[in-house]
Design a protein that fits this description.
- There is one protein chain.
- The radius of gyration is 18 Å and the shape is elongated.
- The chain has about 120 residues and is mainly alpha-helical.
- The model has no long low-confidence stretch (mean pLDDT about 95).
Length: about 120
């Protein structure tokens, strides 16, 4: 399955976002070892330099760490992972609100619509 990237956002930033999502969702477990840069680049169909840049950014964020001879690992710091999860959730909520406002919905109308969808079981 080829990866699809948006042309208006640098690929390495899109990779950072994908990895953050996989980490906070638990798909990539705390303390688990990542594949090599080369293998990840092949899997995501990107240049190894692009993958390296994404992993360096994840290291800066404290979500990934490197052990000199063993490779890269997902942080074991579950508090950091939960904090990133909250941050990503806030970003999604902000985007939702902005999009609803652009459609002309008030905050109250957007909340009511959202609540109705949850109550009808459309959002699980």
């Amino acid at each position: 399955m080829p990866n699809q990237f948006q042309s208006n956002i640098p690929i390495y930033l899109q990779l950072v976002h994908k990895f953050k999502h996989r980490i906070v969702s638990g798909e990539l477990k705390a303390g688990s070892k990542l594949e090599s840069v080369r293998d990840l680049a092949i899997r995501f169909e990107v240049n190894p330099n692009t993958m390296q840049r994404a992993l360096t950014e994840l290291e800066r964020d404290g979500l990934v760490y490197a052990e000199r001879t063993s490779g890269r690992f997902i942080t074991k710091d579950t508090k950091r992972i939960h904090k990133m999860r909250d941050t990503l959730a806030e970003e999604i909520i902000e985007q939702f609100i902005l999009q609803m406002k652009s459609l002309g919905f008030s905050n109250q109308e957007a909340m009511e619509l959202f609540q109705n969808k949850i109550e009808k079981g459309m959002i699980k």
